[in-house]
Every structure is written in structure tokens, then in C-alpha cells.
Amino acid sequence: MIGLVGFDGDDTLWHSEGYYQVVHDEFERILGKYLDLADARVHDRLLATEKGNLRLFGYGAKGMTLSMIETAIELTGERIGAGDLHRLVELGKQVLAHPVELLPGIRAAVAAVAREFRIVLITKGDLFHQEAKVKRSGLADLFHRIEIVSEKDESTYRRLMAEFEIEASSFVMVGNSLRSDIAPVVQLGGWGVYMPYALTWAHERETEFAADDHRVETVEQASQIPGAISRIAARALDASRTPT
Amino acid sequence: MIGLVGFDGDDTLWHSEGYYQVVHDEFERILGKYLDLADARVHDRLLATEKGNLRLFGYGAKGMTLSMIETAIELTGERIGAGDLHRLVELGKQVLAHPVELLPGIRAAVAAVAREFRIVLITKGDLFHQEAKVKRSGLADLFHRIEIVSEKDESTYRRLMAEFEIEASSFVMVGNSLRSDIAPVVQLGGWGVYMPYALTWAHERETEFAADDHRVETVEQASQIPGAISRIAARALDASRTPT
Q1: How close B10 comes to chain A (CA, Å)?
Q2: Banded model confidence at residue B202, pLDDT cuts 50, 70, 90
């Protein structure tokens, strides 16, 4: 019996990664003034810095901006000018201020699910930026609760399920990241609706989890989410009736 | 009847502002290589940049670091070297990694309050950094709930009280900021225990609220918190018996 449906925010409800990729491209263009880009593997170095800093910065645009500044200074051997570093700060602000554009059909899909189930928004990253995006999305009123978390792993989902007073077997999570939205929920005994997004940050691609698990439905677009949840609900009902 | 006591984190449970002030002093020292400090009003300019950026960055060390970088570039007319800007990033990391040192007597005071009342921790700022500090504090287990919020104003406290299912008249907040911990709670009809800290960020000092309100007890040190809450509980009980 499904009792609660969770939705991810970035790249599930609204476009996000595209804004980061524009910034990464501009970052590379700026560094191209100082480096031979063919040799420098700028993206790899930035990702390595970002991952090294996660333990202190967590996720989000402010941490990314500081990691860009650090990477730029290191890769140029401190030759980069203050004007170009200022431009990196401006790029970070641009990400923080970007408009919230919903994915096609998402409003109708979320509203349809909300008519059948209690729904919550579970999003990861910078508290302040995520709150601003939720507000700008115009979807906040559909959700029973909005949870902004620093990491989406099994222990976070376990804590949230306890707060929501729901068993994992009655919980479905909808999202675009196998690593953050689907794998930990399924591993706790829950269900997933996986909706891949055209762009995925390299860090989120690091998972062994395969989407063909019987507890996961994969959909191509938002309009297919309500049907996928209905199929899962039927399967969950069957499972609850089967003696174990 | 008091049913819930909230505690602030930074500079109420553990030292915080001192780490920021060390960074601000080092920031000024670095800028002194480029500027005549007597003229530059470096602290005022940094505070103005921080306040201007609050709308995008929210509170916390990552936003402060980006504001330092921006201020340094602007005040030096882009003359500051990348090595010195790297040093500012390192200063930000230093704040994020600082050890959590409890205020004297705070553990015993919080434990004493927790024996009488349900207690929650309500702290403002960067989600990731605040979670790390709560963990390092060793106090997490004493709290019924831990709420990390992006702003401490009336609407935030109103939302939290609804989630906690408590009336404002049954809620006491303990903290070092009249602006963020005491004024909004008292304005909603609640109670406050104000424990000033030796250092207060200029932004937090901006309030018209006076601590001599009859709903506020002012204490000098942690050991006085349980007694202050008892006095408030007695007063709240009287108020609940007085016909209005």
C-alpha cells in the first residue's frame, strides 16, 4: 500500500543542471586565456576539487563557485587576474538567481499524483537557494511537506520516513538521479520512479545501481509519472498480500 | 503553560562569531597590503557587501567568503593578487572546519531544561555547516527535533510552531540575538531567554527590540537558563489563568 510519494526538485520538477553547465563552459573559456585547454583537463580538475570540498561545502552553487575560484587559481599557478575571478563570482550569482522553469507537463503530473497520494518534496543542496527555487516554482502548495537535506543517502531517507511515520514499503520516490533518489530508497525497501534528465552532473552518475530493479519504473517524461505510480501502487498492494 | 523550549545554536550553545572575527581581521590585514586602511573602512564595506548579497547567498561561511572575495576585488580595483584571494578561500574553509567549543556550563544547563521540557534546536545558516556543528557538539541527542532554517523571522517561527503543534504562548526561545531569537517569538506571543554573547555580528544588532519586555528574561551565563525558564513557566501559568 503506497502512502506517500516523494519528489526530487532539481531536474525532476525544474531545470537546473543546464545552468551549471553554462557556468562550467564559461569557466573553461576564462581559463583558456591562461592555459592550453587541450592539455589542462579543466572539467576533470574542477570535478576533483568539487568532490574534495564536498566534505566542507556540501552541495550547491556557493560551494561550486568557491571550487571554481580555487581550481582557477591553482591551474593558472596564481596568474589569473582579479577581474576574471570576479567574473567567476558573478557566474555563481547568476546560477543562484536563475529563473525556475518547470519541466514540460510537470505541474499536471504532480497535481494528478497529489489527488491520489500525500506528496512531499525532498531536495538536496543549499537551503537558501532551494527554498528560493521552491517558492519561485509555484508548486509549494501541492506538497504536504518540503524537506531540504544536505545529502540523500539511506540514513537521510530513514530519518525522513520516521518523521513522516511511513514504512519504506509504502514510499515511492520520483527523481532523476539513480544515486540520490532511487538507489537508497529501494535499498531501504521502498519504490522508485526514475525519470532520467538529459544532463547529469558527473558526481550523480557514480552508482552501481541498475534501473531494471523490479521496484523501479523508468519514465521518459512527466506525463508518465502518475501511471508509473499507479503500477507501483498495484505491485505494492500485491506484495503486501503475499505471505513472506 | 510552557510546552516547548527552543535553543539557538551559534553563540548560544557553542562559540561561533569569534571565528568570523578572526577571519575579518585577517581579511583586513591582507587588504592592508593594497590599501590605506585608515581611509578604506574595510569592515563597513564588507558588511555592506554581505548585506547586499544576503538575498542571494543567505547566511553562512560560504556566502561570507564570496562576499570577502568580491569586496577585496572591488576595494583594490582588481589589483589584489590571486594568491591573496586564495588565502581568502582558505579562511572560509577554516571557519567551516573550526572545532565546536561549547559555552561554559551549557551542557548541564541544556540537560537540566531537557529534564523538565521538550526541547528543540533552531539554528540559522548554512544547512551543511550547521549539521556538521550539531554533530560535533555532542548535544544532538538531547533535542527532540533539530531545525536548520534560512531566516529567523516571525513567519519561520510561525511555521515551526505549527509543525511542533504548540501555541506561541507555550513556547520559550533561548538565544543570544534579540533580532533573531527573541523579538520575533515575543511578537508572536511567546517568551524569550536572552543571553548576550560578548561578540555580535553588526547585522544581528539591528533591532528596535528592547530586552526589558516582561516576556523576556536576561541571563549572563548558561547556568542561569534553567532558573529563567522556571520563572517564565510560572508567569505563563499565571497568564493562562488570568481571564482576558
Answers
A1: 17
A2: low
Confidence of residue B210 (pLDDT cuts 50, 70, 90): confident
Closest alpha carbon within chain B to A70: B86
Residue in the block written with cell 531536474: A11
Residues B217 and B199 in one domain: yes
Say which residues have a Cβ less than 8 Å from residue A155's Cβ, sequence separation at least 6: none
Q: Which residues of A touch B79 (CB under 8 A)?
A: 82
Q: What is d(CA B82, CA A69) in angstroms, rounded to the nearest whole number? A: 9
Q: Which domain holds residue A29?
A: 17-97
**B235 in the same domain as B149:** yes
Q: What phi, psi does B5 have (nearest 5°)? A: -120, 125
Mutation target to probe the A interface, by most A beta carbons within 10 A, among B57, B120, B145 is B57
Q: What is the DSSP string of B129-159?
A: HHHHHHHHHT-GGG-SEEEEES--SHHHHHH
Q: For the domain that residue A138 is a member of, what is the CATH number? A: 3.40.50.1000
Single out the residue in B97, B131, B160 at which a domain terminates.
Answer: B97
pLDDT of amino acid B117? 97
Q: Does A57 touch chain B (CB under 8 A)?
A: yes
Tell me the pairing of strands A191-194 and A4-7.
Answer: unpaired
CB contacts, 8 Å: B89 with chain A: 66, 69-70, 73
Contact check, Cβ <8 Å, B128/A82? no
Which cell numbers in the block locate residue A62? Answer: 556557493
- What pLDDT shows up at residue B206? 73
What confidence tier does B207 reach under pLDDT thresholds 50, 70, 90? Answer: confident
- Given a cut of 80, whether residue B40 has pLDDT beyond it is no
B163-201 confidence digits (pLDDT tens): 889 999 999 999 999 999 999 999 999 999 999 998 776
Alpha carbon distance B93, B33 (integer Å): 22
What is the pTM (predicted TM-score) of this model? 0.87
| Residue after which a domain boundary falls, among A97, A123, A156 | A97
CA B185 to CA B20: how far, in whole Å? 26
What is the predicted pLDDT for the residue at B211?
Answer: 74
Contact A82 B78 (CB under 8 A): yes
Low-confidence ranges of chain A (pLDDT < 50): none
CB contact under 8 A, B66 and A62: yes
- How would DSSP label each residue in B86-134? HHHHHHHHHHHH----BPTTHHHHHHHHHHHSEEEEEEES-HHHHHHHH
Nearest to B89 among A66, A80, A82 (CB): A66
Q: How many domains does chain B have?
A: 2
Q: Say whether residue A202 is in contact with chain B using an 8 A CB cutoff.
A: no
